[in-house]
Amino acid sequence: MKETVRSWLESGEIEVFLGYRLVEGHPVPYAFHRERLEELEELVEGSARYPLEKMAMEIQAQNPEVRIGLLARGCTQRAVNVLGVLRQLEPERLRMITVECCPSPLHQSPQCSSLQAPPQLPGKSRWGIYQGTSLEAVEEMEPEERFARWAYEFDKCIKCYGCRDICPVCVCKDCSLADENLVEKGWLPVEVPLFHMVRAVHMAGRCVDCGLCEEACPVDIPLRLLYRKVAAVVKDLFDYVPGLATEPLSLGPMDEEEKRRFAAGGIGLAE
Questions:
Q1: To the nearest whole percent, how much of the chain has pLDDT over 90?
Q2: Is the pLDDT assigned to residue 117 strictly greater than 70?
Q3: Do residues 190 and 157 touch, judged by C-beta distance below 8 A?
Q4: How far is the C-alpha of 47 from the C-alpha of 109, rounded, in Å?
Q5: pLDDT interval class at 164 (50, 70, 90)
Q6: For residues 91 and 80, is the Cβ–Cβ distance under 8 A?
Q7: Which of 156, 151, 126, 146 is nearest to 217 (CA)?
Q8: Under 8 Å CB-to-CB from 71, ≥6 apart: which residues?
Q9: Could you report the per-residue pLDDT of 16-73, keeping only the tens digit for each?
Q10: Mind giving me the DSSP string for the chain?
C-alpha cells in the first residue's frame, strides 16, 4: 500500500492521499503530500475509522481540481457514490485503495472483517436493545415491548451530535437538528425521540450502513439498527439502495430548472 501511494504521489497522479498516520502510537486521519514522502513510513491501515470521504469533499470544495487518493473500505466506496449522486464530490477525481470492511448487508466483497462489539451495559438485556441485534429479531417483539426498548435507548441520548458529525453522508449546510424551534438546546434530558426520528428520516436514501454513528455514540444507542429499518422501508417502497444507485432518491421529480440547479450542485441540500 505504501509503495502504491508513493508512486501515485511521485507521478502526480494524485496530489494528496487521505489515510491514517501513527501519531504517538495512535492512528489519526492524515493528508500525505509529495513534499513529505518520508511520512508514508507512518501510513497505517489499522482498525481506525473516520469519514475520510467527507474530508475529501471538504478539500474539493476548496479546490475542485485537486486529485485525491483515499484509503477506502466498502462503506467508504458506497459513501463516495452517494456524495457523487448528491453532487457533493467528484468521484472521478479520486483514486481509492480498498481495505477490509466491517460487516454489512450492502457489502459486495468477500473480504469482510468484524469490528469488536462495544461492551453491553447491564440494562440492555432487560430494557434495551443490544448492538448487533438483527432487524428481524426486533420486529418479532410485541409492539409494546419494542416501543419500550427503543424508548429506553433514546432516553439515554445527550444530544452530543456525534452521530451527525461523523456521518459521511450528512452534508446539509443548515442542519434542522440544530434548530431550537425543533430541538431546544441546553436541556437534559433532551427532547427524544424527536431528534432521532428526524435524523432517521433524513437518512432515507443516504445511509450506507457504515456504522460510524453507532461507534461514535457515547451511550451505545443501536443507531445502525434504526437506519437499517429506514433502509429496508426505502428498499421495499422504491427498490432503492443508497451507495449502489446512480440517481438521488430524496429529490423526487424535477423540472428543467431544478435539474439545472441540481447539476450545478445546489438543489437538494440546505443552502
A1: 38
A2: no
A3: yes
A4: 18
A5: very high
A6: yes
A7: 156
A8: 17, 18, 19, 20, 45, 52, 96, 97, 99
A9: 999 999 888 888 999 999 888 998 998 988 777 899 999 999 999 999 899 999 998 8
A10: -HHHHHHHHHHTS-SEEEEEEEETTEEEEEEEEGGGGGGGGGEE-SS----HHHHHHHHHHH-TT--EEEEE-HHHHHHHHHHHHTTS--GGGEEEEE--B---TT--SS-B-PPPPPPPPTHHHHHS--TT--HHHHHTS-HHHHHHHHHHHHHT-----HHHHH-TT---SS-GGG-TTTS-SS-SS--TTHHHHHHHHHTTTT-----HHHHH-TT---HHHHHHHHHHHHHHHH---TTT-SS-STT-S--HHHHHHHHTT-TTS--
Better-predicted residue by pLDDT, 90 or 267: 90
Residue 226, all three cell numbers: 434504526
- List pLDDT tens digits, range 240-270: 998 888 888 755 445 566 556 656 654 444 3
> C-alpha cell of 207?
445511509
| C-alpha closest to that of 19 among 101, 92, 89, 98 | 98
Q: Where do we find the cell 420486529?
A: 139
Beta bridge partners of 17: 32, 69
Tracing cell 505504501 back to the chain, one arrives at: 2
pLDDT band at 111 (very low <50, low <70, confident <90, very high): very low
**Whole-prediction pTM:** 0.80
